[in-house]
TrEMBL record:
<dbReference type="InterPro" id="IPR008844">
    <property type="entry name" value="Spore_GerAC-like"/>
</dbReference>
<dbReference type="InterPro" id="IPR057336">
    <property type="entry name" value="GerAC_N"/>
</dbReference>
<dbReference type="InterPro" id="IPR038501">
    <property type="entry name" value="Spore_GerAC_C_sf"/>
</dbReference>
<protein>
    <recommendedName>
        <fullName>Ger(X)C family spore germination protein</fullName>
    </recommendedName>
</protein>
<keyword id="KW-0449">Lipoprotein</keyword>
<keyword id="KW-0564">Palmitate</keyword>
<dbReference type="GO" id="GO:0016020">
    <property type="term" value="C:membrane"/>
</dbReference>
<feature type="domain" description="Spore germination GerAC-like C-terminal">
    <location>
        <begin position="199"/>
        <end position="376"/>
    </location>
</feature>
<feature type="domain" description="Spore germination protein N-terminal">
    <location>
        <begin position="22"/>
        <end position="189"/>
    </location>
</feature>
<keyword id="KW-0472">Membrane</keyword>
<dbReference type="GO" id="GO:0009847">
    <property type="term" value="P:spore germination"/>
</dbReference>
<dbReference type="Pfam" id="PF05504">
    <property type="entry name" value="Spore_GerAC"/>
</dbReference>
<dbReference type="InterPro" id="IPR046953">
    <property type="entry name" value="Spore_GerAC-like_C"/>
</dbReference>
<comment type="similarity">
    <text>Belongs to the GerABKC lipoprotein family.</text>
</comment>
<keyword id="KW-0732">Signal</keyword>
<dbReference type="Pfam" id="PF25198">
    <property type="entry name" value="Spore_GerAC_N"/>
</dbReference>
<keyword id="KW-0309">Germination</keyword>
């Protein structure tokens, strides 16, 4: 009986397989990256980076351009320029020009979300000045096409915890959730090479501002647990002067102390401590290894080690307060304080409009606790 069932299953599979439309790869143009820019006449222009498989040349990489009112319309228009059918099922990167991002990118994400062929690993980013200029940059030092280069750049920084998660599904999850807003990397061309310029702050799907890229790791440790990362801090020199080896007034050369740290593990916890006055507390624990000091501070003294931990705490707390104050002015809740606020409301109800009235006025107390686990080794 089982044998009969297996034979029937094989016959069904063969029958269904014969119904699938087959396409020769040499007659397809596979889209790997797409840029979308706003035009003056309310149309959009798409820049498609495509792989074409031709027998004489092998793989050929070319840009193709299309215009329309929608992504589908622009793709159809781009097909008029291509010798072969454009296939969008392998897109790894969606890049949006800054002017379009200011108006909102959700209308152009909806079609992506409806296409089951598109990979979940597709990354989103914003470009300066336009997606077309970034994707069509010619540079000898980039071994692959610019779209793949940017995809790899974002992938490595996301994997190494320097970027918030920036896949399509993560973006849409935050977009639909009340009390949190997405963040994306902003890509620019510098010295003819695409680089991450900053972090885009969004309210819903609209670009409302940006924060410098040197705060990337701070964004991550305020969002989730991070392990095995290196970072630098600049501390005031004055508190450490009495712990300098062979220190005299004549040997003083700087008023700043540069330190390099290896983050072993971070942990973050945020709570609403005063519901009436909208006061939150964010506790942050950091286990770090000291990798480098710019000045000869004697760390064999327990007091100097405790002082170093204290100054690290103060620096990170100050940075977190400063960054949050700037984001509040932009009214984009990147760190998701609204999600915590919502859990304390009756029946967990909160509207996006109400939260964005409250959010600019909330107060957050940052409490950082740093523990230097090792300080005798240099990486």
């Amino acid at each position: 009986m089982k044998t009969l069932h297996c034979l029937l299953l094989i016959m069904i599979c063969l029958t269904l397989g014969s119904c699938v439309q087959s396409k020769q790869i040499e007659k397809l143009s596979v889209v790997t990256s797409r840029g979308t820019d706003q035009l003056e006449n309310s149309e959009i222009e798409t820049t498609l980076m495509i792989f074409q498989f031709t027998k004489p040349e092998g793989i050929v990489i070319n840009p193709v351009f299309g215009k329309g009112k929608t992504i589908k319309g622009a793709l159809a228009n781009a097909n008029l320029e291509s010798r072969f059918e454009l296939v969008a099922g392998k897109i790894q990167l969606e890049l949006y020009g800054m002017e379009l991002a200011k108006k909102g990118i959700f209308p152009y994400l909806d079609t992506l979300n409806r296409d089951a062929r598109l990979p979940d690993s597709m990354y989103l980013a914003i470009s300066v000045p336009t997606a077309k200029e970034v994707l069509t940059t010619k540079e000898q030092s980039i071994s692959n096409n610019v779209g793949e280069h940017i995809h790899g750049l974002i992938k490595e920084n996301a994997k190494d915890h320097f970027l918030p998660r920036v896949t399509l599904q993560t973006f849409l999850s935050k977009y639909y959730d009340i009390g949190v807003d997405p963040a994306l990397p902003i890509i620019e061309i510098k010295d003819s090479i695409p680089k991450i310029r900053s972090i885009a702050i969004l309210r819903d799907d609209k670009l409302v501002g940006e924060i410098e890229s040197n705060y990337l790791l701070l964004f991550k440790i305020l969002e989730e647990t991070v392990r095995n990362e290196k970072f630098e801090l600049l501390l005031p020199m004055k508190p450490f002067e009495k712990y300098l080896k062979n220190y005299t007034d004549t040997t003083k050369s700087t008023d700043k102390l540069n330190i390099a740290l290896g983050l072993v593990k971070s942990k973050v916890d945020t709570s609403l401590i005063d519901n009436k006055n909208n006061v939150f507390q964010t506790d942050l624990w950091l286990d770090v290894n000291l990798l480098e000091l710019s000045e000869p501070v004697d760390l064999n003294n327990d007091k100097s080690l405790k002082l170093l931990e204290k100054e690290i705490n103060k620096k990170i707390e100050a940075d977190a307060k400063g960054v949050l104050a700037r984001i509040q002015k932009m009214n984009g809740d990147t760190f998701g304080y609204g999600k915590i606020y919502r859990t304390h409301q009756k029946n967990g109800k909160l509207t996006d409009e109400l939260w964005h009235e409250i959010y600019p006025t909330i107060k957050v107390n940052f409490n950082v606790k740093t523990t230097i686990t090792r300080h005798g080794s240099v990486d």
